[in-house]
Design a protein that fits this description.
41 residues; 78% helix
Length: 41
């Protein structure tokens, strides 16, 4: 039970970090392609 909770915490941290990194890279790619996303984040 404890291990599962720890894994979930790690997963949560990793996914939120990946989300930030991904959105940053995605915005850069959009800018490079001359496309600006209408989804404001």
């Amino acid at each position: 039970m404890k291990k599962k909770k720890l894994d979930n915490m790690k997963k949560g941290t990793l996914s939120s970090y990946q989300e930030v990194t991904y959105s940053r890279e995605f915005k850069m790619a959009d800018r490079a392609g001359g496309y600006i996303s209408k989804k404001g984040q």
